[in-house]
Task: structure prediction
Amino acid sequence: MVEDNVNVAESRAVHKWLRKFDLKTMGPAIALIILCIIGYSLNTAFLSDGNITNLLTRSAFIGIIAVGATFVITAGGIDLSVGSMAAVISGLMIMIMNNALETFGTGITTVLIGCGCSIILGVGAGWVNGFLTTKGKIEAFIVTLGTMGIYRSLVTYFADGGTLSLDFDLRDTYGPIYYGSFLGLPIPVWVFIAVSILGWILLNRTLFGRYCTAIGSNESVAKYSAINVDRIKTYTYIIQGLCVAMATIIYVPRLGSASASTGVLWELEAIAAVIIGGTVLKGGYGRIVGTILGALILTTIGNILNFTDLISNYLNGTMQGLIIIVAVWLQRADWKKGSNK
Amino acid sequence: MVEDNVNVAESRAVHKWLRKFDLKTMGPAIALIILCIIGYSLNTAFLSDGNITNLLTRSAFIGIIAVGATFVITAGGIDLSVGSMAAVISGLMIMIMNNALETFGTGITTVLIGCGCSIILGVGAGWVNGFLTTKGKIEAFIVTLGTMGIYRSLVTYFADGGTLSLDFDLRDTYGPIYYGSFLGLPIPVWVFIAVSILGWILLNRTLFGRYCTAIGSNESVAKYSAINVDRIKTYTYIIQGLCVAMATIIYVPRLGSASASTGVLWELEAIAAVIIGGTVLKGGYGRIVGTILGALILTTIGNILNFTDLISNYLNGTMQGLIIIVAVWLQRADWKKGSNK
Amino acid sequence: AEKIKIGVSYPTPTHAWAAGMNWHAEQAEIRLEALYPDIDLILVNSSNPSDQASAIEDLVSVNKIDALVILPIESEPLTQPVANVKKSGVLITVVDRGLSRTGIEDIYVAGNNPELGIISAKYMMSRLSSGDNIVILRGIPTTIDNERFDAFMAEIEGSGINVLDQKHANWNRDDGFEVMQDFLSRFPDIDAVWAQDDDIAIGVVAALKQAGRDGDGMFVVGGAGMKETIKGIIDGNTLVPIDVLYPPSMIATAMDVTVAAFKSNGPVAGRYILGATLITQENAASFYFPDSPF
Amino acid sequence: MSVAEKTDAYILAAERVSKSFGEVAVLFSVSFELRKGEVHALIGENGAGKSTLMKILSGLHTATSGTIKLDGEEIVLPPYGQSESLGIVLIHQELNLAEQMTVEENIFLGREDTSKGFLNRKTMIAKVQEYLDILGLDISPNDRIRDLSIAQKQMVEIVKAMSRDARVLIMDEPTAVLTEAETELFFKQVERLKQSGVAIIFSSHKLSEVKKIADRVTIMRDGQWIATKKTEDLTLDAMAQLMVGRELSKLYPPKNEVDVDAEIVLEVKNLNADSIDNISFKLKKGEILGFSGLVGSGRTAVFEAICGLLRIESGEVYLNGKPSQFTSVAQARDAGLVYLTKDRKENGLLLTQKMQPNLTLLALPKFVKNMTIDKRAEKIAMARGVRRFDIRARDPNVIVGDMSGGNQQKLLLAKIMESNPKIVIIDEPTRGIDVGTKQQIYNFIAALAADGMSVVVISSEMPEIIGICHRVAVMYRGKITGVLNGTEINESEIVRYAAGLREIQQNG
Ligand SMILES: Nc1ncnc2c1ncn2[C@@H]1O[C@H](COP(=O)(O)OP(=O)(O)OP(=O)(O)O)[C@@H](O)[C@H]1O
Ligand SMILES: Nc1ncnc2c1ncn2[C@@H]1O[C@H](COP(=O)(O)OP(=O)(O)OP(=O)(O)O)[C@@H](O)[C@H]1O
Ligand SMILES: [Mg+2]
Ligand SMILES: [Mg+2]
Result:
């Protein structure tokens, strides 16, 4: 009798632990681990220091943008313009720095001016998306589809169809932002970490994050609960713009150029990262940690495909597509049976 | 006193008429008319027979696909894979016809085999999307983002990175499907008209259409009304696949080839057409007539931009983006003031 | 009198080479229209084959052109539309990518993709010996890329040079950077890189420098003739010591020839193939256009 | 066989049915029997398991153990409303309509009238019109559901259920949002259906209705069956006592008179907005002011306008003598004025979230410490809310959409009160709340007023208005037709004003 009770208690504890260790939230982490195992078994160099560093650094761009996208999507919106926005901000930033160069020289001032402008542009572009969605009452999908086309064509226009290149003299000053390291980790990774932590706090621990979730769950309840829905939604787009600006700031020093092909499809990658991470596309539930894992998963897939010649180059897209679908399926499918609502 | 009453009645009638003649539903038509006026004022050749025919024929592809997309979106889904699907179906269709050629000659049989296969492939691809969304419980956005990548890379693979091209001997048999006319209208336009009418009837006059609306409006209500939600949703993707197959059938004779760049961004164009037409992206309300107007609007924008060199070519995207946003804003903005609910 | 209208259709520039072409086309338009007041050149660019087909339809139905200069985005899909234009009595000049049926164009002006591969391979063989390792970064999967790649592979066949792997870098700097980073992680010993294109080469060089593997006689071969690359060659850059020309100015050449078809008395129809010249420090200066965006 | 012969036969029965959601058990071995042609009421406290039992009886839930018998034979009911084909129809407690669709489309959803695959829209519209006429509903079959008031929506649900050829009609609190007049019309239909042999299960917290219409009553408590009795054997008090498990004192607390010189905290002058016309009234400190009227008379609109949810066209609002035109709910909240919505599903609660974020949502700025949300304070508030409003959720991590209707309402009350308002406007305060808790809520409202807060109660339940309000304003078609005081507050007076039969000119 006593033993029985103990058993029951034990099994409950296990059960509880299993529930906590839920596939739905652990899904992305598990998917990433599986990918790493595959990568390592294909080529042990996969887990080499250099490759891990490359992988993290590359994830930084999409990751930072995806952190912003988590807010937009949690609040029930969507932003398709981020890739083009990154391109146009990169382009303008390069033009501005090349100009500033004449007055301010190749020093840090010029770089700071560039970064400042990038942030202003990001905030501005985000505000435009937010304003049109909230005050113009146009679906976010259409607004950002429109601005996506606009930004993309603007960068082509500024670059005259070609490439805008950062003056070579500036690259030495600005380069370390991408190529430099601190405590063994590249600067972009630090930026990614910082943005992630800030994003996590903002989403999970502040008024703003709570309001995003509320708006994404039910806009009208949010309104009746004294939330300024339009303002919060606009802020999510501004945060998205800020994140794009941050990503741009670490992107530009990499190759010092921007063209019409910069950031193509980043929007879909960012959204995919967010959703792979477990955030619900319809809004109301967001997970920053998941988003970060999602971004890592996407980069890792590309990296692994570069590490093997087992698969025809042409089929890269097929593998990527399959892995994305499977990764999300792992989380969404009904694992526990029985809840027959 | 009597006069007063008459006035009241009259003003009511006017009011009712005004309500019927609502900007929200007339929006797309008005936008199209404005565009036509702009086009004509830029160049009178815009309204020439030849140009109108070109315009209609071109709208047919996107239009037919968008009719399918109207169902998917009305039922609360989304399909990002249509462009890639069109590419892979074109490619396979060409391969199949080139093979059939050896056995069946250059006659109509080969073409029919090709068209048949196209339809089977379309239905199959649609079913895959539907199955993964409903049974796999994965967001439509992710499923179709995945299949988008998969189909796109498959066509690259089949074409070995190059272009698949239809045997030239077949083009004479198959060509008239695109280049031929009937009663003065090109065949693609007839197909477009037929698909539109069928689509309209299906959406507005049949059980199926009503179920799509119900599911998009509230899935759980639909479920509790004994509607087989999964099946209906799967059907919408199959219809989408069918529409893509139809579009492909008239697309292939136009250019006689398929490559990795076939149908790029068609998905966004189709979705834009649907939403410009007044269908609600979140589902529950669909308008086939609007979709058709939406497709015409998009094609007309491109056509007008080809007509003038007032605007730098690079800024085409800017104009398109602006016009799309304005067209939707015209419909969505609150024209009647007051309800700030 | 009615002007002679010549439509010029080419891809929307999304990368530097195309932008260079666009620049040369615009320069030629200004030059030719100033030279012949009765010539009207209409430049249109399109972003995909289907748009390009629409655009040339519009040139015929709306602008009523007398001649068409076209750089097809892809050969196959544009063959039929161009043939239709031809049927309406328009003079056709095809640039760069040939149509997939012969006899449609009156004039053909082109670079030479297989030759680009061959010249690159020959240079590789002149610098490397049997047992040396190279990696290849290819362009966007297209016929052009296939032609260059296949010719390159055929040429080095039997030379003993190992091709460690080849991946698509889509004529894009970012992809070039990332693919090269991964090649460097995978292969400890790489002697040379065929990047096929100057944009990719920029990414490759950045990756090499980042990994500190840009010494030891390692070299990168790009292609097309970007002005920065040529400047580097003039300055004696050892990492990218040469370039293989694929001149973006060919569109201007085609426009010149087409105008000449209306203006000169002699026959101008025919084929003009512009070779894939090897640009070295000696001849680099003559391929350097500092004003061009490319 | 005639109806009379078989009246004793059970058409639908549940035998020792239990149900748990995950680890949470909510029904314990409940048995229930329904006879042909009877109206069987199901009563019990909030969370007693009424809705759950009804869902099991209609196949929407499957029981964890126990059996269901239809016509005496054991059966596994098909899921998702497919048991309609067996003649079992359910009206949910939560409205279950597709908002963007029309009345006609909703009523026929899932069993459209078609010929050769095409919809017979004209026939369906005509049929719907017929039903609407029978129920005296002033809406068109082509109206979209989202444009209807919540009561109208409920009537649509009822039409929907009645239009199906049901043998068993199960209705979960169908009258919760209806006024007495509407309930009257509805009961006529119930009577008619009963005569034609339909068996009806219905639940309600309005015990007088139960008494009036039911043949038998089953009482549940905490997921357990307590008793099944003939209605004539039960008094209202007996019902309440069986439900709550203890004797209930008087439902309404004694009214403390408001101080005659009490300051005026809210004054509205000539307010005009969409669907309201020249509204003026005053609210004193410590006063409970009732707003009565028919559905759609504009009561809600008045207060949505005052709270910044509806644009004011003209007129003035004074809060403590200061002109206050709020353009956002936040401004109103900060000024101590809050509004509790009657539509908890659409405007009140985030159904996909847990209780705690819902509770603190309105007052969230109060919980911010060091720029972040103080989770401990939130937890304390949650415990306080649960205690104060007796919110009973067996699983504290339940998502709000899975809570029982009454407990959702309590949570909503707790949410509003978290912001420590000085003036509370409560729209339909006891919608779907059991008698025991009702009493608590009335006491609570009285206590608020006694503490110097002012309360506006908008209610369609006449006894409630009469029982707790110091003064009652009655509205008719967007206007206040009268304000009643003291002994004037009685049913016949209110009805007269509410029907627009009488109107007194107000003087400020
Ligand atoms: N899907 C579910 N998941 C978890 N718990 C649930 C679910 N549905 C109901 N419950 C719980 O079951 C209990 C009984 O709820 P039920 O809705 O049957 O009560 P009720 O008697 O209808 O109450 P009310 O009068 O308030 O409507 C409640 O504690 C509720 O939280
Ligand atoms: N969103 C809306 N769209 C159209 N009409 C509306 C809307 N909201 C309210 N109305 C109409 O405005 C009038 C006043 O409605 P209101 O909800 O204020 O009335 P009420 O007296 O509170 O009724 P209830 O008993 O339903 O709470 C009604 O005729 C109603 O139909
Ligand atoms: Mg209930
Ligand atoms: Mg109301």
Remarks:
- Chain A has a mean pLDDT of 86.
- The longest strand of chain A covers residues 163-165.
- Chain A has 15 helices and four strands.
- The radius of gyration of chain A is 22 Å.
